Structures are given as structure tokens and as C-alpha cells.
Amino acid sequence: MGFFDAASPQDATPETRWSNGAADEVWDGWGTMLPGVVNRRLVVARSTEAVVAVTSLHAYPDGFAVTWTAVWLPPVGRRIHRADIGVWLGADRLPDELLRLGVQFADGRKATNLDVERYNPADSPVLDSDGGDGGNHQLREHHRVRPHPPDGPLRFVCEWPVFGIPESSAAVDAGLVRAAAADVIAL
Known about the structure:
Shape: globular
Strand content: 35-45%
Radius of gyration: 16 Å
Order of helices and strands: HHEEEEEEEEEEEHE
CATH class: Mainly Beta
CATH architecture: Sandwich
Largest sheet: 6 strands, antiparallel
Number of strands: 12
Number of helices: 3
Number of domains: 1
């Protein structure tokens, strides 16, 4: 079983897709903070046609924000889809053009952009889309993750079948994220 296999988008209901309730209050607090910065660019995967990297990591008191950047050669006759799974819930299968993203903590807990229940119990990691932007050959996806990862490697995982990128990962020391949280300036 692969990293992204456990996700089951067709099982989602509108309530699990979009109900966030109290979770919004957690994220809203981040809007009045200047985050700590982990100064790293981490290439997660590369093929002859595309590259996927973590291009920013910002730490907050109870989690972190990550920006994924994907750059690709122009595909002929293909449409590239944003990495937000929301539009694909209920589909029989995910399109190969959809970029799959995830994080995994050192203790094995993980979260992906394919998870239908984004607001898990406090001890489970949550990977929540915070928008994105891009152009004809580049995509930036912003995600918020909480809680902080435990000590050990913090893995960033991706898969992008349309560009021949199999499940791939790269890691940073989670201690860098936790240390950067000490630099947060809260208003």
C-alpha cells in the first residue's frame, strides 16, 4: 500500500468535505502573527518534465505553514489541476494530472491533500489547503499543518503520475520547525 492509497475521496459527504467549525478559529489566530522561518528549499521529486519542492516553511506556536512549488514543461493537450482535492471528491478515480501532497511525522502519523476529513482529532496531523497560485508552467500550493511534528524527520511526500513522478519524499529535521516557532511575533 502506498502513501496516498488510504485516501477515499468517493466516501466523502458534503459535511465531511467542508465542515471545519472550531478549526477555523485555530487558523484565524495565525493571521495576527509574524511566523518564524525555516530557511530551506527542499526538492521532493524531480523527473525530466517536472520538479516539486517545498519552497517555504513558516512556523507558528501550534503548527507550521508549507508552500509547495511545482514547475513543469508544457504538456501538449493536458490540463494541470490544482492540488486541492475538493473538486475531485466523489470521482471514481483521481486524474493523473492531480498533484498528490502529504506530510509524515517521525512517529508515522501523516496527512495528505487527499484526506476527506481534514479536521482530525488534536493528536492527528491536519494538512489544510490555504490557497495557491501559479501560471502556465508553475503551481504554488499553500498548506497549514498542525500540530507541531515530534522530534525526528519530517517527511514531505508527493506523487504526480502525469509527469512520471512516483511516490517520492524528502525530509527535514522537525527540530528546525519547532525552533523557528520560538521566533514568532504575535500581535
